[in-house]
Specification:
It is a single chain. The chain is mainly alpha-helical. The protein contains 22 helices and 2 strands. A hairpin with an 8-residue loop joins strand 1 (2-3) and strand 2 (12-13). Helix 19 packs antiparallel against helix 20 (364-375). It starts with a strand and ends in a 6-residue tail after the last helix.
């Protein structure tokens, strides 16, 4: 049995020894033995000898040796050259890897059209990874005309052959009704197959579906179990959602320590919502010792990433002097950044700052504007407070000022972080 080397798939091919001669066949086997002993230099020399006689397996393996830098200096250009020689002989795994090199601009200028050409050659031979790659090309319109129906067809072929990411992507198409008739039940089927192969994002999506009851009965404990599996693979959104479930006691026993631990794992990977939530845990002393300074640090990390809730909370810290010297100017700056993104609490607080002249020049028109925007929130508590503030400030204003404030509120559009 002749084996090729691959980072993603192991392909075994039966080849006639007579195609390159018995000596070359012996060299190929010696190369395999050397590779398995991790004597990569000897393996590379033997593969090269066979490859130069035209053996496609050996040519592909030389490509892998150069791609991975085993027994030779790593060189993507050389890897491409060897993949191409094997691909032109019809070796599907070489065609697949050559497509990947073109797709990612490794050893050649990035060229999606060439990538699709090589993926198609291998896909038509039944190579599952190539079928998945061609499906992605059709989904994203890279190198081919965008066609979700074609994408679904190629994903389906690869998914039935066990490619986990193809199973996941097919699940997404069924969930969204993109290229196929929307079917939450089939989305669950394909997510399950991908999840059982350890695809974290599929595990996370199953958690969402069990949490919301889409395609399956609502079951928060099952949702938590799927979030746990994805979270243990460091999928940050799963870690954040699992933390919320522990905090609320939803599907699991309430446990602030566990909530803080999962928020921390996501926060340390840079997830802004988890950073903000961990800051709140430190502020309140839930699951961790109360520590305003640490709360401030986590709020700042999230705020610097543009998270409007964290920006509002950071503004509160400066406004009240929690864990930092009280600073109205700094508070206003953070209220402004959050309010500009549409954070209703920040908009209401910024209205107060303009009404009272704290950190800004007093301006009733701007105060009315921000109260009006805050009142548009669907949050009933904030809405009631903002509407009360509008009524209170309106008696201090003339009709011209109110009309101008209403105009400004009508023309306002949220900004991006």
């Amino acid at each position: 049995m002749r084996k090729t080397l691959s980072q993603s798939v192991a392909v075994s091919l039966w080849l006639l020894a007579s195609s390159v001669g018995l000596a070359a066949a012996d060299d190929f086997q010696r190369a395999q033995n050397a590779f398995e002993r991790e004597n990569f230099a000897a393996a590379a020399a033997l593969y090269r000898s066979v490859a130069e006689q035209g053996d496609a397996d050996a040519q592909f393996n030389m490509g892998q040796m150069y791609h991975q830098g085993r027994g030779v200096l790593q060189n993507d250009g050389e890897a491409v050259a060897w993949y191409r020689r094997a691909a032109l002989q019809g070796l599907d795994v070489a065609q697949t890897n050559l497509g990947w090199m073109y797709e990612n601009g490794r050893g050649v200028p990035q060229n999606y059209t060439e990538a699709a050409v090589w993926y198609r050659r291998a896909a038509l031979q039944g190579h599952a990874v190539a079928q998945f790659g061609l499906g992605l090309a059709y989904l994203n319109g890279q190198g081919v005309e965008q066609d979700p129906i074609e994408a679904a067809d190629w994903f389906s072929r690869a998914a039935h052959r066990g490619v986990g990411m193809a199973q996941y992507n097919l699940g997404v198409l069924y969930f969204e009704g993109h290229g196929v008739v929307q079917d939450y039940n089939l989305a669950v089927v394909w997510y399950l197959r991908a999840a059982d192969q350890g695809i974290a994002i599929a595990q996370y999506n199953l958690g969402v579906m069990y949490s919301t009851g889409q395609g399956v009965p609502t079951d928060k404990s099952v949702a938590a179990a799927w979030y746990q599996r994805a979270a243990e693979q460091d999928f940050t959104s799963a870690q954040k959602n699992l933390a919320i479930m522990y905090f609320d006691g939803d599907g699991v026993s309430q446990n602030y320590v566990q909530a803080a631990a999962w928020y921390r794992r996501a926060a340390e990977q840079g997830h802004p919502h988890a950073q903000a939530a961990l800051g709140m845990m430190y502020f309140e002393g839930h699951g961790v010792p109360q520590d305003y300074a640490r709360a401030l640090d986590w709020y700042r990390l999230a705020a610097d990433q543009g998270d409007p809730q964290a920006q509002n909370l950071l503004a509160v810290m400066y406004h009240r002097g929690y864990g930092v010297t009280q600073d109205y100017d700094e508070a206003v700056a953070w209220y402004q950044r959050a309010a500009d993104q549409g954070e209703p609490q920040a908009q209401n607080s910024l209205g107060f700052r303009y009404q009272n002249g704290e950190g800004v020049t007093r301006d009733l028109v701007k105060a009315y504007k921000w109260f009006s925007l805050s009142a548009a929130t669907p949050n009933p508590t904030i809405k009631v407070i903002a509407e009360r503030n509008i009524d209170m400030i309106a008696v201090m204003m003339n009709s011209t000022q109110i009309i101008e404030a209403q105009r400004l509120a009508h023309e306002w559009r949220p900004s991006r972080p």
